[in-house]
């Protein structure tokens, strides 16, 4: 499923500054280097000692810190983002001494191993990535070939390990919440999809595990890097939310040219609270006002996500009420209907195809543009969070005990 939402937890640097040892090669440049060192450290305070996520300028500064010429920083940038090299020891373009210095000072690229993959017949691949603390996150790669044979490859990325919001229909919410992802842990998901598909990712949607707005700082940093360094157009990136008070306005202030997708799932507050418990703290009218302001501030149309749950929110009356709500608050609205992906233990059912079509027609006849999300990878079973839940029930403390063989699991964003 497509996730939507979050709560801002500040990054806490796990590596104290004292651990950053001065490299041998810094000795000669120490007089000039110390001011650079402090400035650069301050700018890396968020993801200390992880190269992935740093801009070309920051990498050039880092090279200078290590007594290298700044073009070594450009080489680092090329190796990380173009060649996608995962280990410093494999930076064969760089002098061995520089590589040693980086490693001795505790730097790493910031790529994690792929722990498990499930491939559906339609080519959708769901990956589990194993983070440094043995936690698992899901990422989905969705390839779509157009009429001319060129491929659009969408990465559906997670922004948190689990999710604290517990939407009633969501497997991720049922699995609980562990922590926010750091910026490099978001970026590496896109690189992992590129590696697996041997193709460039063209689109990124923040619709995997977690609520992006609860980890907005890291999401914005990852967004910058994906746009500037990995070179994915801003318009090809979608940030999704179930709604966290005050965050849509904050996002609007960054004036990104990316799409904001807001998960409504209901046309009125009462029903919404029943489906999305966190809606109690963010009334529907307040969300709609923030969405209208987002459009006014950015000129970017807001897309509304609506998970269709059989017999709960999928009647034409609901569609009529939804159309009224959207017209009341703005223009240029788009609704993305998501027929529910059944998950184990859920009280909800997938709506009948006719109900989906009738819902879409009722919206269209009221001049709301509609798309119906194709369910990808349903053959391997489905829903965001399901695969992770299966493996993360027993935290991974040691190298896998054959969990790989339990492969009867889920796919689909
Ligand atoms: S519980 Fe699921 S749907 Fe709700 S915000 Fe979290 S990830 Fe998204």
TrEMBL record:
GO terms for cellular component: cytoplasm. InterPro entries: Aldolase_TIM, Elp3/MiaA/NifB-like_rSAM, Methyltransferase_A, RlmN_N, RNA_MTrfase_RlmN, rRNA_lsu_MTrfase_RlmN/Cfr, rSAM, rSAM_sf. PROSITE patterns: RADICAL_SAM. Its cofactor is [4Fe-4S] cluster. GO terms for biological process: rRNA base methylation; tRNA methylation. Residues 149-379 form the Radical SAM core domain. CDD domains: Radical_SAM. SUPFAM superfamilies: Radical SAM enzymes. Keywords: 4Fe-4S, Cytoplasm, Disulfide bond, Iron, Iron-sulfur, Metal-binding, Methyltransferase, rRNA processing, S-adenosyl-L-methionine, Transferase, tRNA processing. NCBIfam families: rRNA_mod_RlmN (TIGR00048). This is Radical SAM core domain-containing protein. The lineage of its organism: Eukaryota, Viridiplantae, Streptophyta, Embryophyta, Tracheophyta.
